Amino acid sequence: MRGRLSALSADSRMELFRHISAEPMTTSDLAVRLGQPAAQISRSLRVLREAGLVVSDRQGKLVYHRIDTATVLRMGPDLLATLTR
Questions:
Q1: What is the mean pLDDT of residues 11-25?
Q2: Which terminus, N or C, of the chain has the lesser number of Cβ atoms within 10 Å?
């Protein structure tokens, strides 16, 4: 739990998490939406993925990132509500 919360402690990762909680998105889509370089988005996604909060699925040439809902739900419904506001 501590590792997961630590992964969300950076404002930029929390913002990224909020975007992919609404819909799966590619790194490029996230970079445009958040106004950050794709390399920074990729590093943030890696931290979230290593914490078990994000799952990445390849669809052809694109990789879509989404929250791992089951893992987040295990953290508690109140936490999920806070994270997706």
A1: 91
A2: C
| Distance, CA of 10 to CA of 56 (rounded, Å) | 20
Give the pLDDT confidence score for residue 9 in this predicted structure. 78
In terms of phi and psi (left: phi > 0; alpha: psi -120 to 50; beta: otherwise), the region of 60 is left
Element (H, E) at 8: none
- The whole-number pLDDT of residue 5 equals 75
The sign one gets for the Cα dihedral 38, 11, 43, 77 is: negative
Give the model's confidence band at 71: pLDDT under 50 very low, under 70 low, under 90 confident, else very high. Answer: confident
Query: Cβ–Cβ contacts within 10 Å for residue 58, how many?
Result: 8
